[in-house]
Amino acid sequence: MEFYNKPGDYDAINYVPHTESHGTKELWKTFWLLLGITIFDFVIYFVMPASGFRNFIFIFFGLVKAYFIVGAFMHLKHEKISLALVILVPMLFVLGLISGLLYEGSALEVMKSM
Amino acid sequence: MANHTSTQAAFENQPTWAGGRSPFNVSYGKLMMWIFLLSDAFTFSTLLVQYGTQRFSNVVTPITTKWPDPASIFNHFPFMHGLHLPLLFVSMMTFILILSSVTMVLAVEAGHRNSKAEVARYMIYTILGGVAFLSCQAWEWYTFIHEGARLDGNTFGITKQGYDHLHSVGFGDHFEWAEGDRTFGPVPFAALFFIVTGFHGFHVFSGVVINVVVYIMTVRGVFERRGHYEMIEKAGLYWHFVDLVWVFVFTFFYLI
């Protein structure tokens, strides 16, 4: 087929935008942050008694870690905003579903004991 | 790639959604990787939804047949037999995975500078990190099964006596289950652990295979001839996703 196949033709399938290196500074900063949060989680686990608030702390810092992994490591912070929204908006709805069903789980326990 | 430029420029002057170019300014392959990861995130989310519902309808209490406190069960560390070291081993696994994520992203960065030797070196580190993580997980599973965990049952229902016993030992003290500490608990406990960590471990395994393939391609100069190291970025996206899922597995299965 004679359709955008010869070398030198513009070819939407093989098109790769040129990417510049942003250096390693941000990456190492992210690494120390992730390590710090993991150690923080470890410490909190032992110094705080189990409670809903402690669970909230763990989930919150899990989301913070996710933000840094997706933003810096997966480079989404530097992509076009439209691409970031396509990926993140459905996940927000899924998070809503998960938290909703955690709540329903507690209701289920009450029902089971009735 | 240089001889693309003139024809490419004609497309790039068009409005974003007029066609003929990537409206997101990423390559086809990278966009498809993102879409795959989104779908994979949905898959893991269904497992977490199931876990969350089961977990919170069997809340931890000192009463039998409730959900056990996970850190009291995963309290082993290799070569420190019989010591109560909750959360330590799994935190180390988290550290290994974060570290291999960093070496992966350093390989991507080296790829942007077209530095073949550096890409190859960081890919080796990343592969080693992945293999180390998988070994840790194998050990974790072995220990858990050895203690009596099965897919179709749960012998980790902690009795009142077991609860008091667990809370009387400090970090690093000697601990062994006593008679009457455990009874049958909620069945999904072990099953969900095996399914979710197994599913994640399988992703790590696939990631290691992908990384090995990409490493061989790097060393053989495939990307050097192609003029760019975008394949490293795509493998990297997958690898970071695996790390991302582990963040949530760690949070939900070990911390909460």
List keywords for this structure.
heterodimer, A: 114 residues, mainly alpha, 3 helices, 68% helix, disordered N terminus, B: 256 residues, Four Helix Bundle (Hemerythrin (Met), subunit A), two-stranded antiparallel ribbon, 9 helices, 66% helix
Q: In terms of quaternary structure, what is this?
A: heterodimer
Please trace the helix and strand order of chain A, writing H or E for each element: HHH
CATH class of chain B reads Mainly Alpha
Structural class of chain B: mainly alpha
Major sheet summary line of chain B? 2 strands, antiparallel
Anisotropy-based shape of chain B: elongated
**Cα radius of gyration of chain A in angstroms:** 22 Å
The run of helices and strands of chain B is HHHHHEHEHHH
Major sheet summary line of chain A: none
DSSP helix fraction of chain A: 55-70%
Distance between the termini of chain B: 51 Å
Strand count of chain B: 2
- Please state the CA-atom Rg of chain B, rounded to the nearest Å: 23 Å
Rough outline of chain A: flat
Q: Number of helix segments of chain A?
A: 3
Spatial ordering of strands, largest sheet of chain B: 1-2
**How large a portion of the residues of chain B is in β-strands, by DSSP E?**
under 5%
Domain unit count of chain B: 1
**Residue share in helix of chain B:** 55-70%
Ranges of chain A with pLDDT <50 over ≥5 residues? Answer: 1-6
Instruction: Report the sheet-strand fraction of chain A.
Output: under 5%
Please provide a brief summary of the model.
By secondary structure, chain A is an all-alpha fold. Chain A has helices at 25-47, 52-73, 81-112. Chain B is mainly alpha-helical and 256 residues long.
Give the arrangement of secondary structure elements:
The complex is a heterodimer of chains A (about 110) and B (about 260).
Chain A: H1 25-47, H2 52-73, H3 81-112
Helix pairs in contact in A: 1-2
Chain B: H1 5-12, H2 28-56, H3 70-73, H4 88-112, H5 116-146, E1 157-158, H6 160-168, E2 182-183, H7 188-219, H8 222-226, H9 230-255
Antiparallel strand pairs in B: 1-2
